[in-house]
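Model: Ready when you are.
Researcher: Fold this.
Model:
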Amino acid sequence: MNILEEEMILPNGSILSNRIAKSAMSENLSNKYHEPTPVLIDVYKKWAQSGAGLLITGNIMIDSKAIGEPRNVVVENRKTLKILKEWAKSVKGTNTHLWAQINHPGRQAMEQINSNLKAPSAVPLKTGGRNGTTKKVPEVLSESEILEIVEAFGNTAIILKEAGFSGIQIHGAHGYLVSQFLSPYSNVRIDKWGGSLENRARFVIEVYRKIRARVGSGFPI
């Protein structure tokens, strides 16, 4: 327990007060416009009182046309900056960091919400997936669309930094878009975005580089 209570100094100089963190989970607590709600903010106020050094939000979508689950928060512009600042302030008065997890679902978007599924390759899910996703064959992302998504990740990150979140997490797991690019099963492209591991990893590396360019060297990713 003594080790868990020790602070952690990150490479950029940020200090986490201890080694305990709440992992991201999809809270599904936005309103119908995919904005944060008072209920969501109250949840984080309670979690901030737990004493954890770090809270990571549930996946925040970078594009309102690509939503993973109902009631996901979407941050694609500054229209909701005021309420985002309230969310970021939920840890005020504590030693807890609040990092925002940002995400794009790719082919794993809910068809009921997004009729136009996009993915690295035209490879459907083997099963119906979860949360209402289907085995519909997704459209292949063009290179210009890939670059637009990379830009969107950077845009969402800087908005969340401006709102007061103290770090960003790129969602790279659970079959969402970053995972789809990394996997040789869902990414069968023959251009520079597929094939070798280096090419399949290009997307997430470019996402990271774009975010880093927008938020600066002193912000945790």
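Researcher: Now this one.
Model:
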Amino acid sequence: LQENEMKDSIQLSDHFGYGRLIRFTIPSILMMIFTSIYGVVDGFFVSNFVGKTPFAAVNFIMPFLMVVGAMGFMFGTGGSALIARTMGEGKKEKAQEIFSLLVYAVAVSGIVIAALSVLFLRQIASFLGAEGTMLENCVVYGRIILVALPFLMLQYAFSSLAVTAEKPKLGLIITVTAGLLNITGDILFTAVFRWGIIGAAMATAMGQIVGGIVPLVYFAGKNSSSLRIGKPKWDGKALMRACSNGVSELMSNISMSIVGMLYNAQLMRYAGENGVAAYGTIMYVDFIFLAVFIGYATGVAPVISYHYGAGNQKELNNLLKRSALMILLASGAMLLLSELMAAPLAGIFVGYDAELLQMTVHAYSIYAISFLFCGFSIFGSAFFTALGDGLTSAIISFLRTLIFESASVMILPLLFGLNGIWCAIIVAECMSVLVTCLFFVAKRREYHYF
């Protein structure tokens, strides 16, 4: 069995054609898709079995919960790039030490952030604009979720680190297991036992705890991967490099959350609670489609880092060209699929309210055009992170998810009303593609990828 596994396994040092690239990245893509689907399932049960106001409350506090969880992505993506590059340079023992240090850093920071967030959650939700019943729902849901935050951060970090350890399927298995527990909990706690928003939060937290513990146990014990958790050796320089390199992922998640808050504020002004609920529905579907691009970027990043560390410029060029073509084809397919599926997908969440359903379908048919552009910027940011250029990656993410979209969502409604809010993402993504292309041209001589 071990012999067959070795025969079928793909190593970071391999040459990647389309087939091998797809085989290596598909577990990461599926992992991200499943993670997004589980979020959709949560939304379905809250919306249909708990009510419209709790559903709006979950969507309202979710951007903040995403911000604090994003620290795991920062350690994971930044650390993976550093570890893979170190492996490419032939320093396997050093890579092992960095891996162990990062895992401990994620766990400790998760505990500290969770404690502070639980303590000040009511003030945070109130500051963001929640009040009355929505405020109470935000606090109840958020505090339960935050108990599992250290485990969620570990799960996020291991989603990248497992790929670097040449075990991309491990992350997928963990995600599926954790997600099935989440779905089972949703069915029991909200549909059967009728525990309301508390039950939905407990189901989510249960899945996150399992998702963090399983990879921790796997890498702490004897395993067949190229990395294992050992006694940590302090290396402040390596930790800072990992964090600064992965800051683009943190910035991207923080920016998305801030933008989400701006959307909610604008929608409350132009469309009320229905607008927030419609946007929440769009976000659930948006996560699934974006998961394809994010999953691919997560899967291919360690390969890019390895070959950059090994000085293999020809393979860097190969990876860039093949990735660009696959993203282009995927973008067209997603736009077509999303336009065809707008009504059925919206009906899953808000089919019980004709006015809300009509608003959601209309909004999504506009919003979906952004899928044609977003994939290239997501890949571009991940590509520069993989090269160790965290600053360029962070600039792309910062401009894409905060500056361009924030400006669009504030200005366009003044010109086009509610439709301006739905169009904001399209304008932002177009501008982001332009910036990403400029960086690829400007940095080509520094990194020699074409």
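Researcher: Key takeaway?
Model: DSSP finds 17 helices and no strands in the chain.
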